Amino acid sequence: MRHRLNSKLLIAAMSAAGVAFAATQDARAARAAGADDASCRTVRFVDIGWTDITSTTALASIVFEGLGYAPKTTVASVPISLAGLKSKQIDVSLGYWWPVQQKAVEPFLESKSIQKLEPPNLSGAKATLAVPSYAYDAGIKTFADIAKHRDELDGKIYGIEPGSSANAKIQKMIDSNQFGLGGFKLVESSEAGMLVTIERAVRDKKPVVFLGWEPHPMNIQMKINYLSGGDEVFGPNYGEARVYTLTNPEFLTRCPNAGKLVSNLRFTTDLENRLMQPVMNKERPAEAAKAYLKQNPQVLDAWLAGVKTVDGKDGLPAVKQYLGLR
């Protein structure tokens, strides 16, 4: 009886070991084929709270949902987001604005505690002084032209919230009388407050100089022109900026399929201008992102090249089905 019981136990143990071995082999084979293990199902994004990053993170999350993943987004400041990536509590950030955040991010890249993906997910971003198109046509085309129109401009340049680096650059220009701007006043306000002022000026066809940037819905809501000649202040090419994707150091190797999608993500300023508009009008980012993808499904082709669903099927048809597209 004892011998028969021991035999049964031995057979059960061998069977369990065989199942475990097969499962291990399956997991290894899946990883070798570029599939993700179960720990990758929850892709952990961080959103630094800027509307453009909120919008692109929502886009990526909708696509991941269509693939069968369970994306999770945490809203955190830039320093906390970087700490989360380093500690591997966060997988992905779509929001490294270069050169604005360079000083904060560079130490993490140098120590290899965070990975930066190349190329950037957004090129052609910019931030510099701008005017409505009618003011540009009237002669305010460069930084050097501003002082010539002091009276029409009421001696004011409109910035954003106090303490911003962009405002500091404008104030430094005024204090040093650069471009003859000594005596001008920097009007500081929230982003929303500044935009209300600019929209009122546009309605009345009054000339006005303000801090403009792209991506932002202002670029499609109003006809504006960016001023040339400000390279010394805001940097070359109208204060050109790029936005990079950051990951924790293990994410791409641990989750190759999810990493492939993250690496494929590319946005344009026009895409972000249009997607940010409903988000800024209080539409839920996920709903705005889903609506954008339904109207512009062509972006999915490049994003999903070589990407599978969480269970190994072709990714593109699965996401299209999730969005209700044929």
From TrEMBL:
<feature type="domain" description="ABC-type glycine betaine transport system substrate-binding">
    <location>
        <begin position="42"/>
        <end position="295"/>
    </location>
</feature>
<dbReference type="Pfam" id="PF04069">
    <property type="entry name" value="OpuAC"/>
</dbReference>
<dbReference type="GO" id="GO:0043190">
    <property type="term" value="C:ATP-binding cassette (ABC) transporter complex"/>
</dbReference>
<dbReference type="InterPro" id="IPR017783">
    <property type="entry name" value="ABC_choline_sub-bd"/>
</dbReference>
<dbReference type="GO" id="GO:0022857">
    <property type="term" value="F:transmembrane transporter activity"/>
</dbReference>
<dbReference type="GO" id="GO:0015871">
    <property type="term" value="P:choline transport"/>
</dbReference>
<dbReference type="GO" id="GO:0042597">
    <property type="term" value="C:periplasmic space"/>
</dbReference>
<feature type="signal peptide">
    <location>
        <begin position="1"/>
        <end position="22"/>
    </location>
</feature>
<keyword id="KW-0732">Signal</keyword>
<dbReference type="InterPro" id="IPR007210">
    <property type="entry name" value="ABC_Gly_betaine_transp_sub-bd"/>
</dbReference>
<protein>
    <submittedName>
        <fullName>Substrate-binding region of ABC-type glycine betaine transport system</fullName>
    </submittedName>
</protein>
<dbReference type="GO" id="GO:0033265">
    <property type="term" value="F:choline binding"/>
</dbReference>
